[in-house]
Amino acid sequence: MRKKWLIILSALVLAAAAVWGGSILYANAQNEQAPEELALSTPSSPAATDPGTDAATSGAALTGTWQTQGDSQAGYRVDEVLNGQNVTVVGRSSQINATVTVEGTKLTAAAVEVDMTSVKTDNDRRDNQFQGILKTAEFPTATFTLNQAVDIAAIGSGPLSVMAPGELTIAGVTKEVTAQLTAQLNGANVEVQGTIPLAFADFGIAAPNLGFVQVEDTGSIEMLLKLSR
């Protein structure tokens, strides 16, 4: 009998080790596959980042309304804990529309809308769960709206980093947030990379907990806007 129990115990230990080892391998593979954070491109025009460019003049020359091109992106980044292993999950969509207004050297208005039904990761089951949690059948879009003018005069001297206060709406809930933006001129266009820290509970969203996998309570919204007039 003692030998039988030793065999059973050994089998359980081996099974647990296999699960743990498999979780490590899965976590490492997922983290290697997770896309890097969205980033600005290398400007095609050297003049766009020439330190000799007059910043105020460049800012004034941007006056007008700008809209997204087809290669803009937005999505989310969140960490999961799978059997004790940290896994980074990234969802992305190119279904994004933004309108930005510049007056002189001020960013005076910005509205960004993302089709949440089109956000995809590398896992269909995860995506289906995501759609349910965010109630996308009822609230198919998420929006960010600037609510305070931002000084962008220094954009003529190269990439400009600013904090942009606004309102973020997800799953029908609107909260005040601050977007961390980096913008640059790229030829006749403007690029804006943005990140918004996100606490799911603020939007009435419960982070999934399936026992063996727990989604962290916080994450971030990422966007890369490529704008033209």
Write out key terms for the chains shown:
21% helix; 229 residues; elongated; alpha+beta; Lipocalin; eight-stranded antiparallel β-barrel
Mean pLDDT: 81
What is the percent of helical residues?
A: 10-25%
Q: Going across the major beta sheet, what is the strand order? A: 1-4-5-6-8-9-10-11
Determine the number of helices (DSSP H or I, runs of at least 4 residues). Answer: 3
Account of the 3D structure:
- This protein has 229 residues and is of the alpha+beta class.
- It folds into 2 domains: 1-33; 36-228, Lipocalin, CATH 2.40.128.110.
- Helix content is 21%, strand content 45%.
- The chain is built from 3 helices and 11 strands, in the order H-H-E-E-E-E-E-H-E-E-E-E-E-E.
- The protein has an 8-stranded antiparallel beta barrel with strand order 1-4-5-6-8-9-10-11.
- Strand 2 and strand 3 (85-93) form a beta hairpin.
Would you spell out the secondary-structure blueprint of this structure?
Elements: H1 2-33, H2 55-61, E1 64-68, E2 73-82, E3 85-93, E4 96-103, E5 106-115, H3 124-133, E6 141-146, E7 150-151, E8 160-170, E9 173-186, E10 189-199, E11 213-228
Antiparallel strand pairs: 1-4, 1-11, 2-3, 2-11, 4-5, 5-6, 5-7, 6-8, 8-9, 9-10, 10-11
